[in-house]
Amino acid sequence: METLHIPHIPQLDNLNTDEISSLLDSHGSHGRIAELNWPQFPYAPLSAFNIAHSGTAIYIDFFTRCNYLRAENYTNLSPVADDSCVEFFVSPTLDNHYWNFEFNCIGAINASHRSERHNPTRLNDAELASVRRSASCGNRPFKEMEGIFAWNLLCAIPLALIGVEYTGKPIEMAANFYKCAGKTSAPHFLTWNPVRCEKPDFHRPQDFGRIVLD
Fold first, then answer.
1. Predicted model pTM
2. What is the per-residue pLDDT across 101-151, written as a single tens digit (0 to 9) for each?
3. Of 182, 179, 183, which is closest to residue 195 (Cα–Cα)?
4. For tag attachment on the chain, is the N or C end more exposed, with fewer CB atoms within 10 Å?
5. Is the distance from CB of 153 to CB of 133 less than 8 angstroms?
6. What is the 3-state secondary structure of 76-135?
């Protein structure tokens, strides 16, 4: 099981997007989304992330390099996993209750609170708006393009949104990070921590890794 220590950088809340990305690169923790769990989907674009927390939010800067880029979904709670997409699933309580945050390359978001894959509690518009996002591809939808593309998605997820209060002491949680693009010409389903099942399924808290907010 992967374990990732996430440093506390309080000044993140007071910086602009470029400054946040730079600070995450220089002082955050780094991870690769490179587990190819399903050989029937062999395409594996380079995918990684930098991460830290401010005491009030978790900041993640995802970046990827790929040959197909798609962003057809642009509304809240739309199926962004069909597009060029990065995801963060987290269980603050270390049980089957978890939150899924999914973002396509233009920052459209699908997010829920769940105890299983089915019957999610969808976040409302105000909750979704509290998750700050900055996408290097802009925010306008587009159909699939072929070429060589490098893009990043920066997000800030409020700790209060997932029921966590940071008091200066380490907080252990379970989580996984994903890269997918289900309806592109090169569909792929990559993970940070290995997922052990026959077909692509990210909704498996039993396969989450360990993260610690230091």
1. 0.97
2. 999 999 999 999 998 788 899 999 999 999 999 999 999 999 999 999 999
3. 179
4. N
5. yes
6. CCCCHHHCCEEEEEEECCCCCCEEEEEEECCCCEEEEEECCCCCCEECCHHHHHCCEEEE
